[in-house]
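FORM 7B: Structural annotation worksheet

SECTION A. Query
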Amino acid sequence: MSVVVNHISKKFGNQLALNDVSFSIKAGEVVGLLGANGAGKSTLMKIITGYLPSDGGYALVGDLPVGTNKTAFRERIGYLPENTPLYHEMYVREYLLMVAGMYRLKHKKNRVAEVVEITGLKPEITKRIGALSKGYRQRVGLAQALIHDPEVLILDEPTSGLDPNQLDEIRNLIKNLSEKKTVILSTHIMQEVEAVCNRVMIIRNGEMVADGPVDQIKKLTKQKRQTVKLTISEAVNMNQLNKLSFIADVSRIDENEYLITASVDEDDIRPKIFEAAVRNGWTIISMQEESRSVESAFRELTK
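SECTION B. Predicted structure
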């Protein structure tokens, strides 16, 4: 299901939290929403989910405007806030059955069992929510967002407090969910964006400053040319490297380590480096692209 945001603005007193923000998301996309603290990410998510009214513009989920036909709208959206409000005195199963009842699901017990399995809550199902670790409480929050099988998921810092193993599990879960759902994911973990998302939006001071596929966002860094760190088993003649047409500059880092900058019209020179190594009989130990990443683009765009 698609999501459309059209010229959304929001003020809190004299502070402009969102300024004329517009974008559209196709069904099945996993979009990373990035921004520094206070940039407007959570405000935008709350407006899309109908928890907060906008001061201007409008948002659509599918063909349904946010704020109209609230029952039908909430059936389409699953929302995990940054600080998930949970009833700590309730047991996990009890809480999820209550949420399922609020959505008037016909087979509540079966659906609760499904989301418990999906989110990995089975080992903790008999515990009170207040007795769970932060990571497992986060899973309970994710389970409540999934309980009614919504077509759009809005996840605000979904992996907060998870250990590395749990991170992988939740990332894989989000990937699997994206096969059938549209996902908007806010996070400060850049590796998570590159691992899970196929598109990135970056907000700065309430305004959209970048929006595009992950590979395109990586190229928004000031370093426009690709740089590759190359390690060869033995030192080679620098002239041999400088003669290669796809290389703009070469510098020696160590006896057999080189930093190679691509020509301006080259997108990825690594296959060509490999071909040159085969022709010249060089043995490549390692070859790694330097610098260009979502994180470097984020840092430059949000300064």
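SECTION C. Observations
The longest helix spans residues 164-177. Residues 3-213 form a domain with the Rossmann fold fold (CATH 3.40.50.300).

SECTION D. Sign-off
Analyst initials: ____
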